[in-house]
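Input (structure):
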Protein backbone atom coordinates (compact mmCIF):
# COMPACT_ATOMS: atom_id res chain seq x y z
CA UNK A 1 0.00 0.00 0.00
CA UNK A 2 2.67 2.50 0.98
CA UNK A 3 4.72 1.59 -2.11
CA UNK A 4 1.78 2.59 -4.32
CA UNK A 5 1.30 5.81 -2.33
CA UNK A 6 5.00 6.64 -2.64
CA UNK A 7 4.88 6.02 -6.40
CA UNK A 8 1.96 8.45 -6.63
CA UNK A 9 3.83 11.04 -4.56
CA UNK A 10 1.41 10.65 -1.66
CA UNK A 11 3.91 9.34 0.91
CA UNK A 12 7.67 9.59 1.55
CA UNK A 13 9.63 6.77 -0.15
CA UNK A 14 10.79 5.42 3.22
CA UNK A 15 7.29 5.31 4.71
CA UNK A 16 6.00 1.91 5.77
CA UNK A 17 2.62 0.73 7.02
CA UNK A 18 0.80 -2.49 7.62
CA UNK A 19 -2.57 -3.75 8.83
CA UNK A 20 -3.19 -4.38 12.53
CA UNK A 21 -6.10 -6.51 13.69
CA UNK A 22 -7.99 -5.42 16.75
CA UNK A 23 -11.23 -4.42 18.42
CA UNK A 24 -12.51 -0.85 18.08
CA UNK A 25 -13.57 -0.94 21.72
CA UNK A 26 -10.17 -2.23 22.97
CA UNK A 27 -7.48 -1.08 20.56
CA UNK A 28 -4.01 -2.67 20.71
CA UNK A 29 -2.23 0.71 20.99
CA UNK A 30 -0.81 2.72 23.85
CA UNK A 31 -2.22 5.96 25.22
CA UNK A 32 -1.55 8.97 22.99
CA UNK A 33 -0.08 6.89 20.15
CA UNK A 34 -1.41 8.98 17.24
CA UNK A 35 -1.46 12.59 16.08
CA UNK A 36 -4.38 11.97 13.72
CA UNK A 37 -7.23 9.46 13.70
CA UNK A 38 -9.72 8.85 10.89
CA UNK A 39 -12.78 6.73 11.68
CA UNK A 40 -14.37 6.35 8.25
CA UNK A 41 -17.74 4.57 8.08
CA UNK A 42 -16.96 2.57 11.23
CA UNK A 43 -19.13 3.69 14.14
CA UNK A 44 -22.43 2.73 12.52
CA UNK A 45 -21.21 -0.91 12.65
CA UNK A 46 -20.20 -0.86 16.33
CA UNK A 47 -22.92 -1.65 18.90
CA UNK A 48 -20.86 -0.08 21.70
CA UNK A 49 -20.02 3.15 19.90
CA UNK A 50 -19.37 5.08 23.12
CA UNK A 51 -16.66 2.57 24.01
CA UNK A 52 -15.12 2.99 20.56
CA UNK A 53 -15.09 6.78 20.91
CA UNK A 54 -13.48 6.47 24.35
CA UNK A 55 -10.77 4.29 22.80
CA UNK A 56 -10.19 6.80 20.01
CA UNK A 57 -9.80 9.52 22.66
CA UNK A 58 -7.35 7.34 24.56
CA UNK A 59 -5.03 6.56 21.64
CA UNK A 60 -5.09 10.16 20.31
CA UNK A 61 -2.52 12.50 21.83
CA UNK A 62 -3.69 15.75 23.46
CA UNK A 63 -4.03 18.30 20.68
CA UNK A 64 -4.55 15.55 18.11
CA UNK A 65 -7.15 15.71 15.38
CA UNK A 66 -10.04 13.37 14.60
CA UNK A 67 -12.18 13.02 11.48
CA UNK A 68 -15.28 10.83 11.76
CA UNK A 69 -17.56 9.87 8.89
CA UNK A 70 -20.87 8.03 9.23
CA UNK A 71 -23.84 7.61 6.89
CA UNK A 72 -25.94 10.78 6.86
CA UNK A 73 -29.41 10.54 8.38
CA UNK A 74 -31.67 11.04 5.34
CA UNK A 75 -29.91 8.76 2.80
CA UNK A 76 -29.49 6.12 5.49
CA UNK A 77 -33.12 6.30 6.56
CA UNK A 78 -34.20 5.72 2.95
CA UNK A 79 -31.91 2.68 2.69
CA UNK A 80 -33.40 1.19 5.87
CA UNK A 81 -36.91 1.77 4.53
CA UNK A 82 -36.14 0.11 1.22
CA UNK A 83 -34.34 -2.98 2.51
CA UNK A 84 -34.20 -4.98 5.72
CA UNK A 85 -31.15 -6.85 4.43
CA UNK A 86 -29.24 -3.56 4.21
CA UNK A 87 -29.07 -3.27 8.00
CA UNK A 88 -29.94 -6.77 9.28
CA UNK A 89 -26.91 -8.49 7.75
CA UNK A 90 -24.39 -9.56 10.43
CA UNK A 91 -21.73 -6.89 10.68
CA UNK A 92 -24.02 -4.33 9.07
CA UNK A 93 -25.30 -1.01 10.28
CA UNK A 94 -26.78 -1.03 13.78
CA UNK A 95 -27.91 2.61 14.07
CA UNK A 96 -28.69 5.76 12.14
CA UNK A 97 -26.96 8.86 13.46
CA UNK A 98 -28.19 12.40 13.53
CA UNK A 99 -25.43 14.98 13.55
CA UNK A 100 -26.41 16.34 17.00
CA UNK A 101 -26.33 12.81 18.43
CA UNK A 102 -22.85 12.07 17.11
CA UNK A 103 -21.53 15.47 18.17
CA UNK A 104 -22.92 14.91 21.68
CA UNK A 105 -21.18 11.52 21.87
CA UNK A 106 -17.92 13.09 20.70
CA UNK A 107 -18.15 15.75 23.40
CA UNK A 108 -18.95 13.11 26.02
CA UNK A 109 -15.73 11.33 24.99
CA UNK A 110 -13.77 14.53 25.66
CA UNK A 111 -13.49 16.00 22.16
CA UNK A 112 -14.06 19.57 21.08
CA UNK A 113 -16.22 19.44 17.96
CA UNK A 114 -15.33 21.57 14.95
CA UNK A 115 -16.81 21.80 11.48
CA UNK A 116 -18.70 19.31 9.39
CA UNK A 117 -19.73 18.71 5.80
CA UNK A 118 -21.50 16.13 3.64
CA UNK A 119 -19.80 13.97 1.00
CA UNK A 120 -20.50 11.33 -1.65
CA UNK A 121 -23.71 12.75 -3.04
CA UNK A 122 -23.44 10.53 -6.12
CA UNK A 123 -23.32 7.42 -3.94
CA UNK A 124 -26.73 7.78 -2.31
CA UNK A 125 -28.76 6.93 -5.44
CA UNK A 126 -26.52 3.89 -6.00
CA UNK A 127 -27.35 2.53 -2.55
CA UNK A 128 -31.03 3.31 -2.94
CA UNK A 129 -30.95 1.35 -6.18
CA UNK A 130 -29.11 -1.53 -4.51
CA UNK A 131 -31.65 -1.60 -1.70
CA UNK A 132 -34.54 -1.56 -4.18
CA UNK A 133 -33.26 -4.42 -6.35
CA UNK A 134 -31.58 -6.40 -3.54
CA UNK A 135 -28.39 -5.48 -1.71
CA UNK A 136 -26.77 -8.78 -2.68
CA UNK A 137 -27.75 -8.51 -6.36
CA UNK A 138 -24.36 -7.37 -7.65
CA UNK A 139 -25.27 -8.86 -11.03
CA UNK A 140 -28.28 -6.59 -11.53
CA UNK A 141 -27.92 -4.64 -14.77
CA UNK A 142 -28.71 -1.21 -13.36
CA UNK A 143 -26.62 -1.71 -10.22
CA UNK A 144 -23.63 -2.83 -12.29
CA UNK A 145 -23.97 0.16 -14.62
CA UNK A 146 -24.13 2.62 -11.74
CA UNK A 147 -21.16 0.94 -10.06
CA UNK A 148 -19.11 1.38 -13.24
CA UNK A 149 -20.06 5.05 -13.24
CA UNK A 150 -18.85 5.47 -9.66
CA UNK A 151 -15.56 3.70 -10.37
CA UNK A 152 -15.03 5.89 -13.45
CA UNK A 153 -15.75 8.99 -11.38
CA UNK A 154 -13.34 7.96 -8.61
CA UNK A 155 -10.53 7.19 -11.04
CA UNK A 156 -11.01 10.00 -13.58
CA UNK A 157 -12.66 12.72 -11.47
CA UNK A 158 -14.14 14.51 -14.49
CA UNK A 159 -15.35 18.08 -13.94
CA UNK A 160 -18.98 17.25 -14.74
CA UNK A 161 -19.34 14.68 -11.95
CA UNK A 162 -17.30 16.80 -9.54
CA UNK A 163 -19.73 19.67 -10.09
CA UNK A 164 -22.73 17.35 -9.76
CA UNK A 165 -21.47 15.88 -6.51
CA UNK A 166 -20.69 19.32 -5.08
CA UNK A 167 -24.31 20.32 -5.77
CA UNK A 168 -25.75 17.08 -4.39
CA UNK A 169 -23.63 16.79 -1.23
CA UNK A 170 -25.60 19.23 0.95
CA UNK A 171 -28.87 17.58 -0.09
CA UNK A 172 -28.24 13.83 -0.31
CA UNK A 173 -24.58 13.33 0.58
CA UNK A 174 -24.26 9.67 1.65
CA UNK A 175 -21.80 10.53 4.44
CA UNK A 176 -21.46 13.26 6.99
CA UNK A 177 -17.92 14.18 8.03
CA UNK A 178 -17.34 15.70 11.47
CA UNK A 179 -14.01 17.11 12.64
CA UNK A 180 -12.93 17.27 16.26
CA UNK A 181 -9.80 17.59 18.33
CA UNK A 182 -8.62 16.42 21.71
CA UNK A 183 -7.84 19.49 23.81
CA UNK A 184 -4.21 19.93 24.93
CA UNK A 185 -3.80 18.63 28.43
CA UNK A 186 -7.06 16.69 28.25
CA UNK A 187 -7.29 13.78 30.70
CA UNK A 188 -8.11 10.31 29.53
CA UNK A 189 -11.87 9.83 29.11
CA UNK A 190 -13.75 8.34 32.03
CA UNK A 191 -14.32 4.63 31.77
CA UNK A 192 -17.56 3.77 30.01
CA UNK A 193 -19.70 1.42 32.14
CA UNK A 194 -19.87 -2.12 30.86
CA UNK A 195 -23.17 -2.80 29.08
CA UNK A 196 -25.83 -4.95 30.67
CA UNK A 197 -26.88 -8.17 29.01
CA UNK A 198 -29.97 -6.34 27.77
CA UNK A 199 -28.09 -3.41 26.18
CA UNK A 200 -29.82 -2.24 23.03
CA UNK A 201 -27.85 -2.57 19.81
CA UNK A 202 -28.70 0.98 18.75
CA UNK A 203 -26.32 2.36 21.36
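Output (sequence):
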Amino acid sequence: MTAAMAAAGEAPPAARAGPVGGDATAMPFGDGSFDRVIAAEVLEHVPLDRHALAEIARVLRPGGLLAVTVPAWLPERICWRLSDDYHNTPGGHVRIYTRPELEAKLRAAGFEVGGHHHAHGLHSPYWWLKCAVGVHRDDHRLARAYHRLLVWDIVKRPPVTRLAERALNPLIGKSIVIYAHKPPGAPLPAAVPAPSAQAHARG
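Notes: Confidence is low (pLDDT under 50) at residues 196-203. The domain at 33-181 is CATH 3.40.50.150 (Rossmann fold).
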